[in-house]
Structure prediction request, 1102 residues.
Amino acid sequence: MTPTPMVEIASMIAWINRYADRISEHQAWLTALDAEIGDADHGINMQRGFEEVRMRLAHEHVDDLGVLFKGIGMTLLSKVGGASGPLYGTLFLRMGMVAAGKQTLTPVEFANAVAAGVEGIRQRGSARPGDKTMVDALMPAIIALHQALDDGATLCAALQAAAAAAEAGMKATIPMQAYKGRASYLGPRSIGHQDPGATSAFLLVQSAAESLCAAEHNSD
Amino acid sequence: MTPTPMVEIASMIAWINRYADRISEHQAWLTALDAEIGDADHGINMQRGFEEVRMRLAHEHVDDLGVLFKGIGMTLLSKVGGASGPLYGTLFLRMGMVAAGKQTLTPVEFANAVAAGVEGIRQRGSARPGDKTMVDALMPAIIALHQALDDGATLCAALQAAAAAAEAGMKATIPMQAYKGRASYLGPRSIGHQDPGATSAFLLVQSAAESLCAAEHNSD
Amino acid sequence: MKKLINNPAIVVEEALSGMAHAYPHLLRVNFCPNYIVRADAPRRGKVAVIAGGGSGHEPMHGGFVGLGMLDAACPGPIFTSPSPDQILAAAAAVDGGAGLLFIVKNYTGDVLNFAIAAEECQLAGVPVQTVLIHDDVAVEDSLYTAGRRGVGVTVLAEKICGAAAEAGASLEEVAAIGRKVSEQGRSMGVALTSCIVPAVGRPTFVLPDDEMEIGIGIHGEPGRRRAPLQSADAITDILATTIFDDLPFTRGSRVIALVNGMGGTPLMELYIIFRRLAELCEERDITISRNLIGNYITALEMAGCSLTLLAVDDELLHWWDAPVHTPALRW
Amino acid sequence: MKKLINNPAIVVEEALSGMAHAYPHLLRVNFCPNYIVRADAPRRGKVAVIAGGGSGHEPMHGGFVGLGMLDAACPGPIFTSPSPDQILAAAAAVDGGAGLLFIVKNYTGDVLNFAIAAEECQLAGVPVQTVLIHDDVAVEDSLYTAGRRGVGVTVLAEKICGAAAEAGASLEEVAAIGRKVSEQGRSMGVALTSCIVPAVGRPTFVLPDDEMEIGIGIHGEPGRRRAPLQSADAITDILATTIFDDLPFTRGSRVIALVNGMGGTPLMELYIIFRRLAELCEERDITISRNLIGNYITALEMAGCSLTLLAVDDELLHWWDAPVHTPALRW
Ligand SMILES: Nc1ncnc2c1ncn2[C@@H]1O[C@H](COP(=O)(O)OP(=O)(O)O)[C@@H](O)[C@H]1O
Ligand SMILES: Nc1ncnc2c1ncn2[C@@H]1O[C@H](COP(=O)(O)OP(=O)(O)O)[C@@H](O)[C@H]1O
Ligand SMILES: [Mg+2]
Ligand SMILES: [Mg+2]
Ligand SMILES: [Mg+2]
Ligand SMILES: [Mg+2]
Prediction:
């Protein structure tokens, strides 16, 4: 039996760069979703933050996953602004706490780090599932991730399951009425629109699946 | 030979009421002309003034043409505002000075009164023919009026000639560049548009022809 | 037509009524004829400063009635000058025995109506001086035309003349100061959209999304020329250099700068314009001694702005800095 | 998109630069991170009052920096809350040793970013109190929602807290006054048009010519409901009665009334709204002790307005009347 492939710094950087690509591609879409039930800036905010992250990653050499994630979190915190800045910032800061001092993570350690990050988002924003936020994409994703790993799936397969769950969670926000974030001001009018933050969250999980499956494939 | 029919107070009131009708009918048109090269209020201004005139005429009994014209002039002065208020106001104030103390006017006396009024407009506004103002309709009209009367025409026929001259004068403002009034600010861009004040001036002369021809016809 | 109004026929009266409710300590409103006077009018022995013009330019003129500025404002209908009887009634309400100063923007209607009122006052033995404001450099000036329009300098002239009158200057002195302001001030404006006269219900003109009108006045009318929409800096360059090229801005001069919004332009954009204007003045060694940025002389909800520069000396700055307490200008 | 801008990416920075040129005697601007502080900051021994939020609401908050109001303003990108490092840098620049008061509008983004900054300050031993503004009665309030938005009351809270801080009140005192304002103020708004976020280039929403959005915030977003456009009086009735029906306006109360334009609405229309509001208050035996009419908390070039009523007592009126000298508010 081949040893469990470890999550490396390079593949984490690949993940984040891929996500930055996805955000750029979908900036207008995320902003348009936010125009419907928010203030038309989610794509702009995320792009501003992740372009800065991309730039810093290109210029800094990091050999500690804790430092990597903390740096990403701080950059998001200072560049994204709005609600999503502190929330995605918290995600990576918490991941950095779990991964502090490590150069690699096992898939389960990686899943635990992400779970801590999602828990951080829930604490910061106090959104509950069903409130029509990014939590509605992230919670199912983290449950599916753990479940698949428990069932012995590879990280690639587990992330694919997580991405599928995130996508379903994202779509499930459409019929929801918002109770947190800016869309909550619309009351019942928020029903029928997909949450922009849940959408960017799905893209984050999907990017992880894409880049880590590529990494797993390369290491075969 | 029938005695020259005199211009009576009743026919002057009929003239002004007919003009008030014409202004109401053409309010939007006058305003639209003013929107092209002015500030989109000429029809509104004239309607405000002449509706007030109409109301006062209905409630006041006057048996002096001087008092009648002066009253109209004062009402226009206080109700029309803008450039056209003082100008049309002056027209009637000057007519009132010429007609002071009279209950009737001969056609020539009437023409002289109007001529004095037009001269008042020229003094107040210091516009010269060709400056693209109401003067371009009124000057030809007054010349045609005198000419026709000199040639022995009835007042009806003379006013019809005057209306035709006013109409030609009005249309002649189209190719002119404005040198007076608000349209002058447009410089060469004022070319190609009919002057709103020349248009309301034509309607004034036309109304005179219509109502005085009707009066002449009735008195036959 | 999207407006917060009840009835196009009475927008002016209802707005005046709102002002009467809002500023009873500063001003009194009279209806029929419509005018606004200082709460403490008439001020005995003080030159009364009176201005007026069409409505739709708020806060001008009514918002400038109060201590250190106007004694009376005569608001006509939207974009239509007030009538002589309105001006005479306002004049009677504020005449303090030291004469009247009329500040008149150079539009045929304003000029004629104020002229008739001035003639009546003179006949009645009340001394009147008129200061004509004609600062719009977009308009060619000549003996044979209506001349330049009065725009942004009006605000500065009202403040400065009002301060001198408040301090007890004589009619001749206040008029001389007003003429100095009129001679030394220049303005020019640009529109990105037209506006809708309430009684008309449609925009006065329609501009495609990528065009602007350069050299506009304050009545929602088209300007001297239509041009492709450009950047804020390029627009500022056009307006400012046309102003600079006109008298009397020389190296080393000091100016009061007004960056004025036309009613529908956000303050943020005016700040961006001011940024460029400050650069241009610096390049020319012109010092912006004082500035005013905001909606002061507007054209309903028109989007656009105008620049005004007034060359000042210590005297004008002294009057500019004097206390003023009106709804729209206060220090 | 018709705007007087150069580049959507730097509108905030260029506007800040304009402010720096215009008001050097009142404020200083820092770039990267962006913040505005009083020219004389830090004031030793004085509580520093700090506010912030997305840009596009001008004059709020930067226009309220100066004597008797804000020590610092932190402008985020358009409609996007500032980040913690921005807030921390501004805080460091104005900290006078007597603690910091954060005035925070209740939006998830503003709340989270200011909360993170507050945590950092506390860790560093700098006392911080936060006053949360959540006055928008259009939004249902509940424990399980994001709660009501902060809108017009923000302006009043900044003025009143700023006055108390200027007079030397302690952090606890200033915070208590701020919370009182927050508890006693209510607002509601209406939009006739949306606005265009510069980086987006299209209106956030499109409204037919005969419809309005009722219950809007200040971010160009749609409101609680869309309704047929009505008269100014009918609209005022909707906004004001929703406010009256909420606590704490009782017969005999005194209020400060703010009739606020959203950026694209002419002053004339705001006067018409105020006229009706004054009538409604009179019917209810509510006295409008002070008022403010104009563009104070805006949403770019949106057409529309909001009403704010703040129930006041002698203490709040005292702080309201205290001197203020900022770009946008001065007496
Ligand atoms: N309390 C919250 N908890 C979790 N996510 C939230 C919360 N509030 C808002 N969000 C997410 O943030 C997204 C909006 O982000 P963004 O548009 O960047 O910020 P803002 O709403 O401040 O403009 C929403 O779509 C939602 O998914
Ligand atoms: N100096 C002048 N002499 C004669 N007529 C003039 C003069 N100035 C303007 N007018 C006339 O007035 C008309 C405009 O009137 P109106 O729109 O009511 O006033 P305003 O231009 O003040 O809005 C013009 O079309 C023109 O015919
Ligand atoms: Mg958003
Ligand atoms: Mg006109
Ligand atoms: Mg007019
Ligand atoms: Mg936002």
Remarks:
- Chain B has eight helices and two strands.
- Residues A 34, 38-39, 41-42, 82, 182 surround magnesium ion (ligand 3) (CB under 6 Å).
- Residues 7-214 of chain B form a domain with the Serine Threonine Protein Phosphatase 5, Tetratricopeptide repeat fold (CATH 1.25.40.340).
